[in-house]
Design a protein that fits this description.
CATH superfamily of the largest domain: Aldolase class I
CATH topology of the largest domain: TIM Barrel
Number of strands: 21
Strand content: 15-25%
CATH architecture of the largest domain: Alpha-Beta Barrel
Oligomer: single chain
Length: about 500
């Protein structure tokens, strides 16, 4: 089976509809991402969509090509028919060798159409030369002919009850299914002489062509039942059932791996970072953390060393064999950090900085995404979706505590989100017990609770002289405390294995 689609840059009825945001994702991507397990062919006049398909690893299953100039001109000149059937014939001649192979022609403007529905309709092709999706309505229908309306399914002189009316069907264009053989035999037509009309229901038959369709789709995306909605998201288990496992410069995230990332909140000097890096490496850390850019609540607080801090982190990595993660706060810092860091960190304040997320996604550097201090589960996952749908293949979620009325800790570590993420997403999730606690006396307890709840690791702050730290000293563990944490963590991990 091959799937064929057309996408236009512009729309006559709803301006640039294919690029409208729906559930945090451009409309055209919903259908393309759903079809990840199939051979998809896309004809488009949009260079933006063409480049996205070429550069986005999540769209590697899509063979995309730019529309021929003659068809663009034909579409402009022929307002009644257009070149759709000719473009379909070109696709069949170029890419389809088996004349009996099912071909599905669908559209990206039907975001609620299920893959299971398409597969069921393909099975219904047997015994027919084509399958066409239709919608049925039971209402008083009229046909306009020569500027006059004529009743179709009722007697205008004696109105029946609506429930006894004959149903009226219309082609909703959600899909057409045929073979190369039937298409050619029926004079290059996707509907043959012996079609099977396949009825689909709302919301699968919703085709976004007008503003009111888009408004309905927005509402549905918020309220539709999760098992229908979540299948469109790259971060979801509907997209990938197995847990994601990936490598960051020799360190494995996900699966049975428990990663411990440790280091100071901020890089203060070469000497300071080297002392701490050497200690955490010797005590069992897998990766080094350290901030070169520090977005602080107060503009007068230490803001980090910038590129000089990145250079120091890179030196420490090479000396102590500790890959490092560091926070990036904008496009400029990301461009600088790209050639130094092994992994980016997106802090709580930037979790919903969507332009930054899309920019970083295109860079395709591994990312730790921290949860916003007031973010819901859905908002958290949608931020990860921005990264992955833009091309980032390696995303680690991080629970760092949420803001509540409690005053015994800096934040409240939301342990409950860990099993919730595990249920809905294939991505690994780690905890940040330092920012959750705010006080080093309870950081170890927070970290162990996170591991016990199923977290895939932790990122903790360690400082050998926290009272002199330029950033977040009260929550930094002393090396001895970090040593205890590693020891206790191993015990928790062994218990979980049993």
């Amino acid at each position: 089976m091959k799937i064929f689609l057309f996408i236009k840059e512009k729309s006559e009825r709803l301006n640039k509809k294919n690029f409208l945001q729906l559930g945090g994702l451009e409309l055209y991507k919903h259908t393309l991402l759903k079809l990840k397990n199939f051979d998809v062919y896309l004809d488009t006049d949009s260079k933006q969509i063409y480049n996205e398909c070429k550069n986005n690893n999540n769209l590697s299953h899509v063979t995309c090509y730019l529309r021929k100039r003659k068809y663009i001109d034909m579409e402009l000149s022929d307002k009644e028919y257009g070149p759709t059937l000719l473009m379909t014939r070109d696709f069949l001649d170029e890419y389809v060798s088996d004349e009996n192979e099912p071909i599905v022609l669908t559209h990206v403007t039907s975001p609620f159409l299920k893959v299971s529905t398409i597969l069921d309709a393909v099975e219904k092709l047997e015994g027919y030369d084509s399958v066409c999706s239709i919608s049925e309505i039971k209402s008083f229908a009229l046909r306009k002919k020569h500027n006059k309306y004529e009743p179709i399914n009722f007697d205008i002189k004696g109105l029946q009850k609506s429930q006894v009316l004959d149903s009226i069907a219309h082609l909703n264009s959600a899909f057409f299914i045929f073979t190369k053989k039937s298409f050619i035999e029926n004079d290059n037509n996707r509907i043959g002489e012996n079609p099977n009309f396949y009825k689909i229901h709302f919301p699968e038959d919703l085709d976004i062509n007008y503003e009111e369709d888009y408004l309905i789709a927005e509402k549905l995306m918020d309220e539709h039942k999760p098992d229908d909605k979540v299948q469109r998201y790259v971060v979801s288990r509907e997209y990938k059932d197995d847990n994601s496992v990936f490598d960051v410069n020799g360190i494995k995230f996900g699966g049975d791996n428990k990663v411990i990332i440790a280091g100071p909140c901020a890089v203060e000097s070469r000497e300071q970072l080297f002392r701490i890096a050497e200690k955490v490496k010797g005590l069992g850390a897998d990766m080094l953390r350290g901030g070169a850019y520090k977005p602080r609540t107060s503009p007068y607080s230490f803001q980090g060393l910038g590129e000089e801090g990145l250079k120091i982190l890179a030196e420490a990595r090479d000396k102590f064999n500790l890959p490092f993660v560091t926070e990036v706060i904008d496009e400029e810092s990301a461009k600088l950090a790209f050639n130094y860091a092994d992994m980016f960190q997106i802090g709580t304040r930037n979790m919903q900085n969507y332009s930054l997320l899309k920019f970083l996604g295109k860079m395709n550097k591994p990312v730790i995404l921290k949860r916003g201090m007031c973010a819901t589960l859905k908002e958290f996952m949608m931020s990860a979706e921005y990264l992955m749908s833009s091309g980032c293949e390696k995303v680690v979620l991080c629970e760092r505590g949420i803001r509540t009325f409690s005053d015994h800790a800096r934040n409240v570590l939301d342990i409950g989100i860990i099993p919730a993420i595990k249920k809905d997403s294939h991505l690994p999730i780690i905890v940040d017990p330092s920012h959750a606690s705010g006080y080093n006396y309870s950081v170890v307890s927070h970290a162990l609770a996170g591991l016990a709840a199923g977290a895939d690791g932790m990122i903790v702050e360690v400082h050998d002289c926290p009272e002199e730290a330029l950033s977040d000293g009260p929550q930094a563990l002393l090396p001895k405390q970090f040593s205890d944490l590693v020891k206790y963590s191993k015990g928790i991990i062994e218990v979980l294995k049993k």
